[in-house]
Amino acid sequence: MKNRTLLFSIFSFLLLAFQNQTYKPNMKHWVIIKNCSLKVGGSTNVNKFNCVIANYANPDTITFYKNTEKGSLKLKGSIELNVQNFDCHHPVMTADLRKTLKAKVFPKLVIRFISLDKYPLFNDQSNAIKGIVAIELAGVTKRFEVNYRFVSNGTKSLILVGSRQVNFSDFNIIPPRKLGGMIKTNNELKVEFTLSMKVID
Q1: CA 117/CA 144 separation, integer angstroms
Q2: Among candidates 149, 90, 88, 78, which has minimal Cα distance to 120?
Q3: Tens digits of per-residue pLDDT, 6-46?
Q4: Are strands 183-184 and 26-32 parallel, antiparallel or unpaired?
Q5: Closest to 109 measured CA to CA, from 133, 74, 82
Q6: pTM here?
Q7: 3-class DSSP state for residue 100?
């Protein structure tokens, strides 16, 4: 009887260990390195404008949970950018954008990474991926699907370029106007962020 109980206990332990090993996510960590940037492009009824936050290089880490089952890959990680660092290459436009985005009240623009539809293939020099991010701007957070271009620089480094069209109104922001309303900024903005990263495990 004791032998049967002992065998049952060993079998249960091995089964539990096997299940834990089978369903445990395979985590990968990517650390952000130099040459990262965020670009915002828009237009008025008069001209177009492009603003950028350049040289973002905080050593943030993005964690990937690679499951064997089909479906999107869960991500954990974020980047925080200073809205005051936006440069529109024109002092008046730069000041207007910072004011419109409420930089003094909400100084951070945060991009949180939620998921990818697949893990990037390092043996391909370039491939397309879709993912979900949450963008926090001017005190409002919204989720968006993002189109990524993935460029591999080798087995341990990569560049991920994400792009998405958003609206000022998504964040309860009224597009700026000038000269008594004669110059009107359109609601649409194209957001593009470039992340240079390195796989650390």
Answers
A1: 13
A2: 149
A3: 454 544 544 454 444 444 457 778 888 877 899 999 998 88
A4: unpaired
A5: 82
A6: 0.80
A7: helix
Nearest Cα residue to 42 out of 90, 97, 79: 97
Beta partners for 52?
39, 87
Residue 77 contacts residue 113 (beta carbons within 8 Å): yes
Cβ(115)–Cβ(72) below 8 Å: yes
Provide long-range contacts, Cβ within 8 A and 24+ apart, for 16-25.
25/65, 25/66, 25/67, 25/74
Residue 132: CA atoms inside 13 Å, Cβ hemisphere, count? 12
Nearest Cα neighbor of 192 from 174, 165, 169 is 165
Report whether 131 contacts 115 (CB < 8 A): yes
DSSP 185: B
If you search the block for the tokens 């079998």, which residue do you land on? Answer: 11
In this structure, what token pair is assigned to residue 124?
Answer: 């391909």
Longest dimension (CA), the chain: 92
Domains within the chain, CATH numbers bracketed: 25-199 (2.40.128.110)
Alpha carbon separation from 34 to 57, 150, 196 (Å, rounded):
5, 16, 6
Backbone phi and psi for residue 58, each to the nearest 5 degrees, phi listed first: -65, 140
Would you say residue 119 has pLDDT above 70? yes
Rounded to the nearest 10°, the torsion over CA 67, 162, 187, 42 is 180
Query: Which of 51, 64, 60, 128 has the alpha carbon at shortest distance from 92?
Result: 51
